[in-house]
């Protein structure tokens, strides 16, 4: 998921809880990788190497999805910290799997400025004297395998959660639905990027929701509620809340990819434009008269900062930025409306409202 994880806007109690949750999730993941490497050692050192690379690629995040799990779980009165950490770790491992596979699909060999799984294996092959095509094939192959291991590992972690059998079955269903939606969203992303015609704003939002918002917001919130024993009305409400806040979050990422402050976001504001990424901003701009002045620079691999500034000015003047900001406000407003429903308790509302606040603060 692009952009910075949500850290601001929470109370000190929530922050302390998130930090302890992060530590517990790290412990679950540490045990998972230790067991994976133990099993891999029976098949040889090369397999252990892959597990080491995969583990390195799971370290360093802010454990955003586990925080969604714990927000719903503790907001509903859950107290089993170990079970909550295991469920959170499952969704963190799912995130690892999906970004590893996403990098393979995008033919990316780095993430956050360092080699990813594919990049690590490509680089060692290049150093060993392999041709570039052979080295890249090795890297992509390792990425597919590593992503598969993380994907199946997410299910294994849920299977080990201490809870009633029916609760575990529901958790597995939520995880399966998240994987199913993300796969569909990833396919839609590929198809839209290759289509000769520009997708509509609605198609972009549908893709972003399925590819990222479901597994990052909807599913973790639902899982936390299910683990806490919430009734169906609460689980359904959290699904709706997660959908709206997740879509808002993705539109914010589209904005930050072009207008963000690089020192704060940690990513260049040239990347999305150079890639020709089809975002809400670009999809809307393509329907306006300004598109003819914008189009030559979208997907321009050597786009300069001056040219990027030209594009930003045109996106402003044609209303694309204003549209994106309006959509963020609309979806955030719908999320807040869900929290005002009678099925949401005051405690749960107090935990979830800062999530919306933080999404909005990222645009300021």
Which key phrases capture this entry?
mainly alpha, Farnesyl Diphosphate Synthase, flat
List the helices and strands and how they pair.
Layout: H1 12-41, H2 45-58, H3 64-75, H4 81-106, E1 110-111, E2 114-115, H5 117-127, H6 132-159, H7 165-194, H8 201-227, H9 232-259, H10 262-265, H11 271-275, H12 280-285, H13 291-294, H14 305-317, H15 320-339, H16 346-361
Antiparallel strand pairs: 1-2
Q: What is the correct CATH architecture of the largest domain?
A: Orthogonal Bundle
CATH fold name of the largest domain: Farnesyl Diphosphate Synthase
Q: Biggest sheet, in brief? A: 2 strands, antiparallel
Helix content: over 70%
Number of DSSP-assigned strands? 2
Query: How confident is the prediction overall: mean pLDDT?
Result: 92
Describe, in plain words, how this protein is organized in 3D.
This protein is mainly alpha-helical. It has two domains: 8-197, Farnesyl Diphosphate Synthase; 231-364, Farnesyl Diphosphate Synthase, CATH 1.10.600.10. It contains 16 helices and two strands. It has helices at residues 12-41, 45-58, 64-75, 81-106, 117-127, 132-159, 165-194, 201-227, 232-259, 262-265, 271-275, 280-285, 291-294, 305-317, 320-339, 346-361; strands at residues 110-111, 114-115. The chain has a two-stranded antiparallel sheet.
């Amino acid at each position: 998921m692009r952009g910075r994880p949500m850290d601001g806007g929470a109370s000190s109690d929530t922050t302390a809880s998130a930090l302890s949750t992060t530590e517990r999730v790290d412990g679950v993941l540490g045990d998972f990788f230790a067991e994976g490497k133990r099993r891999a050692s029976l098949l040889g050192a090369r397999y252990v190497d892959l597990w080491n690379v995969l583990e390195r690629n799971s370290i360093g995040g802010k454990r955003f999805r586990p925080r969604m799990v714990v927000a719903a779980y503790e907001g509903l009165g859950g107290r089993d910290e170990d079970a909550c950490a295991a469920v959170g770790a499952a969704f963190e491992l799912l995130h690892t799997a999906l970004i590893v596979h996403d990098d393979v699909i995008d033919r990316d060999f780095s993430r956050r400025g360092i080699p990813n799984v594919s990049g690590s294996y490509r680089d060692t092959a290049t150093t060993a004297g392999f041709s570039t095509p052979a080295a890249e094939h090795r890297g992509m192959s390792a990425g597919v395998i590593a992503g598969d291991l993380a994907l199946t590992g997410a299910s294994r972690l849920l299977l080990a959660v201490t809870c009633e059998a029916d609760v575990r079955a529901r958790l597995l269903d939520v995880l399966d639905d998240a994987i199913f939606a993300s796969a569909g969203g990833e396919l839609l992303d590929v198809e839209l990027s290759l289509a000769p015609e520009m997708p509509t704003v609605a198609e972009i939002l549908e893709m972003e929701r399925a590819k990222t918002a479901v597994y990052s917001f909807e599913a973790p919130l639902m899982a936390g509620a299910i683990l806490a024993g919430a009734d169906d009305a609460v689980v359904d409400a959290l699904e709706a809340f997660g959908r709206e806040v997740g879509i808002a979050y993705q539109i914010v990422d589209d904005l930050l990819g072009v207008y963000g402050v690089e020192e704060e976001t940690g990513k260049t504001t040239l990347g999305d434009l150079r890639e020709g990424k089809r975002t809400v901003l670009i999809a809307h701009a393509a329907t306006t008269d300004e598109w003819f002045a914008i189009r030559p620079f979208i997907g321009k691999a050597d786009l300069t900062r001056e040219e990027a500034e030209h594009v930003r000015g045109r996106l402003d003047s044609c209303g694309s930025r204003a549209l994106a900001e309006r959509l963020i406000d609309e979806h955030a407003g719908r999320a807040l409306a869900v929290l005002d429903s009678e099925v949401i308790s005051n405690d749960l509302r107090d935990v979830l409202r800062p999530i919306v606040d933080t999404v909005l603060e990222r645009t300021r």
